[in-house]
Amino acid sequence: MYMALIFIRTAIIFITLLFVMRLMGKSQIGEMQPFEFVITLVIAELACIPMADTSIPILYGIVAIVAIFILHQIVVLLDLKFNPMKAVICGRPSLVITREGIDEYQLKKNNLDVSDLVESMRTAGYFNLDDVYYGLYEANGSFSALAKENITQSLAVTLIDVGKVNKHNMEICKLTNGDLQNFLKEQSVKLKKVLVMTVDGNGRVYFQERGKPYKILQMEIKGKW
What are the C-alpha distances in Å from 42 to residues 25, 57, 89, 225? Predict the structure, then answer.
């Protein structure tokens, strides 16, 4: 009897959740805004309690879920009607790549680093930092980019990330610390001043000092991939 009661309560909560999530719109099952993500987490927690604890009237769980739905609709209304409120609730897109290169300030503002950006670009289908004119993180966290007409056809690996050398990628390229230091000396740049340095299988280097536009250079590498 107890198991049957749990089953019935779970079915009722499931149907209620399904109905409420459908009312909230497609963004709830796709890429969500921050407030939508929070609401989804809260609803999930509220649904679990009455399903598992038979001492709590199931009506309480349904009322709580409906209350969250009403709050969601109020936030959506504010989002649509008042532009300043939209920025507060959902945030703004952040332009992290410009024609001058990576904007380190925008990365830090969003608690990201160069490796996060490189990973987002690879996920989007861009394997070199200069494959795009502009790159930005949308308010929902997704990455968007305006691609160049001709993108490079070789995978780039990161050698320097905010002044730190990636030893694993150095081994892939079969470069020594001496090779890297000589390259930096040619550019009259100290290691700690380098925001990012990548190199592809053809020796094509993406090089950007902190606070300066990026440069495309060439270096000799022994490794191939």
Answer: 17, 18, 17, 47
C-alpha to C-alpha distance for 149 and 81, rounded to whole angstroms: 38
d(CA 163, CA 143): 25
| Predicted pLDDT at 14 | 62
- Output the CA torsion 101→106→111→114 (10° steps): 0
**Alpha helix segments (H runs only) across 102-217:** 104-109, 114-124, 167-173, 177-186
The total of other beta-carbon atoms located within 10 Å of residue 90's CB is: 17
CA pair distance 64, 42, nearest whole angstrom:
10
Q: In 3-state terms, what secondary structure has residue 196? A: strand
Cα 125 to Cα 145: distance, rounded to the nearest angstrom: 10
Dist CA 59 CA 87 (whole Å): 36
The per-residue pLDDT for range 106-154, each reduced to its tens digit, is 999 888 899 999 999 999 999 999 999 999 998 777 899 999 998 888 8
Question: pLDDT digit string (tens) for 164-202?
Answer: 999 999 999 999 999 999 999 999 999 999 999 999 999
146: Cβ contacts below 8 Å, ≥ 6 apart: 132, 133, 134, 135
Residues in Cβ contact with 201 at an 8 Å cutoff, skipping those fewer than 6 apart? 154, 155, 221, 224, 225
Question: For the residues of 83-123, what is the DSSP string, one character each?
Answer: HHHHHHHH---EEEEETTEE-HHHHHHTT--HHHHHHHHHH
